[in-house]
UniProtKB/TrEMBL annotation:
Family, similarity comment: Belongs to the adenosylhomocysteinase family.
Keyword field contains NAD: yes
One BP term from GO: S-adenosylmethionine biosynthetic process
Additional record remark: SAH is a product of SAM methyltransferases and is known to be a feedback inhibitor of these enzymes. As a result of this inhibition, organisms have evolved efficient enzymes to metabolize SAH via different pathways. The pathway found in methanogens differs from the canonical pathway, it uses the deamination of S-adenosyl-L-homocysteine to form S-inosyl-L-homocysteine for the regeneration of SAM from S-adenosyl-L-homocysteine.
GO CC entries: cytoplasm
Residues annotated for NAD(+) binding in this entry: 141-143, 175, 204-211, 227, 262, 283-285, 328, 337
Main location: cytoplasm
Protein name: S-inosyl-L-homocysteine hydrolase
NCBIfam families: ahcY, PRK05476.2-3
Reactions the enzyme catalyzes: S-inosyl-L-homocysteine + H2O = L-homocysteine + inosine
Length: 408
């Protein structure tokens, strides 16, 4: 068996929720006759999602959503599957990256599945010829949802998109546990530095940021949080973390990780204040949070090695991991979120895509929440896979919870 197939087989055995959904898809074929276009991180767990959609009758055309997050052997393995075409390649140039997206769109997908909204953006700008083929789409990143909601506000979004990112199952597990563990794992395996005792700066205290902060504290780090939202900043303070501005944190931190999904978080005003040997990484989707261009233009010299770029500024070293791209996938040994976490997120993706296949034509253009029943079904399937049972409301409890007339 080739290395890509081995990786996919390893992931598949830890994804029981998708296995349950795939079994039903094989029988019902909800995507029969449809093409699904995807721009995701092409690695083993994603491959299991692709297999699940193909089992449901879909023709799948997929490419990467980040130039450094593709595992080439997995991409090659996907091209051996029936009805699956992968155009992803690690290290693609910007031109190659968008050429691959265009190849996905040349298949005229009925459903899009995005990680960062690049497919949808391309359809609405350069490839409007595809618009009449698309029933709807799914988006699973915070960054992508921000962009989509901006499109919807401007009246520019031409079809319905399910905000897979915004479900409790995505927030509580993928964002908190997945980002927290995988970002730290990639930082540790890339740098081989100790986390315990370090001043660990987390930019942003959304779901990803709070998960990363908690995991870093669990490893013994002294965690600092920077925020722009006063409520989240207060939450971080009440959770026991130091809260300050990035200007203040810049001089204190040993390791910095951005999780905001916004641009210009660590910039030229911060780098000169940092300690010699400061390590910088990004856990947001796009490489816009750390101003790497400023470092490159101001560095006395630069050393590139194994996922670490070292910039020398007046004799002081600043180390940037994975070119400022998504650290849990773009480092040479980055494996992305843990398998069990992505089993849940991709289960929501699969069921949301099925919802679009069945109901997309009835939805208005815009951003739509994942139906609560889908999120709850994924949770129930996971509990069943774990052999866990939960209570159910009695008829009397349901009456009490739904009544305003019953008092003390």
């Amino acid at each position: 068996m080739e290395s890509g197939d081995l990786k996919i087989a390893w992931a598949r055995q830890y994804m029981p929720v998708l296995a349950s959904i795939r079994k039903r898809f094989i029988e019902e074929k909800p995507f029969s006759g449809m093409t699904v276009g995807m721009a995701l991180h092409v690695e083993a767990k994603t491959a299991v999602l692709v297999e699940t959609l193909a089992a449901g009758g879909a023709g799948v055309h997929i490419t990467g959503c980040n130039p450094l997050s593709t595992q080439d052997d997995v991409s090659a393995a996907l091209n051996t599957r029936d009805r699956v075409h992968s155009y992803a390649r690690r290290g693609a140039s910007v031109e190659e990256y968008y050429a691959a997206i265009d190849r996905v769109l040349d298949a005229r997908p009925a459903i899009t599945i995005d990680d960062g909204m690049d497919l949808i953006y391309r359809i609405h700008t350069e490839r409007q010829d595809v618009l009449d083929s698309v029933i709807g789409g799914c988006e699973e990143t915070t960054t992508g949802i921000h962009r989509l909601r901006a499109m919807a506000r401007d009246g520019a979004l031409e079809f319905p998109v399910i905000a897979v990112n915004d479900t409790p199952m995505k927030h509580f597990f993928d964002n908190v546990h997945g980002t927290g563990e995988s970002a730290l794992a990639s930082i540790m395996i890339t740098t081989n530095v100790l986390i315990a005792g370090k001043r660990f700066v987390v930019a942003g205290y959304g779901y990803c940021g709070r998960g990363l902060a908690r995991k870093a504290r669990g490893l013994g780090a002294r965690v600092i949080v920077t925020e722009v939202d006063p409520r989240r900043a207060l939450e971080a303070h009440m959770d026991g973390f130091d809260v300050m501005t990035m200007n203040e944190a810049a001089a204190l931190g040993d390791i910095f990780v951005t999780t905001t999904g916004n641009a210009g978080i660590i910039t030229g005003q911060h780098f000169p204040k940092m300690k010699d040997g400061a390590i910088l990484a990004n856990a947001g989707h796009f490489n816009v949070e750390i101003d790497v261009a400023w470092l490159a233009s101001h560095a006395d010299s630069t050393v590139h090695r194994d996922g670490i770029d070292t910039y020398m500024l007046d004799g002081m070293a600043v180390h940037v991991l994975a070119e400022g791209r998504l650290v849990n996938l773009a480092t040479p040994k980055g494996m992305g979120h843990p398998v069990e976490v992505m089993d849940l997120s991709f289960a929501v993706q699969a069921l949301s895509a099925e919802f679009i296949a069945k109901h997309g034509r009835d939805l208005a253009p815009g951003v739509h929440d994942v139906p609560s029943a889908i999120d709850e079904e994924v949770a129930r399937l996971k509990l069943a896979a774990l052999g866990l049972s939960i209570d159910r409301l009695t008829p009397e409890q349901e009456t009490y919870m739904n009544s305003w007339a019953i008092g003390t």
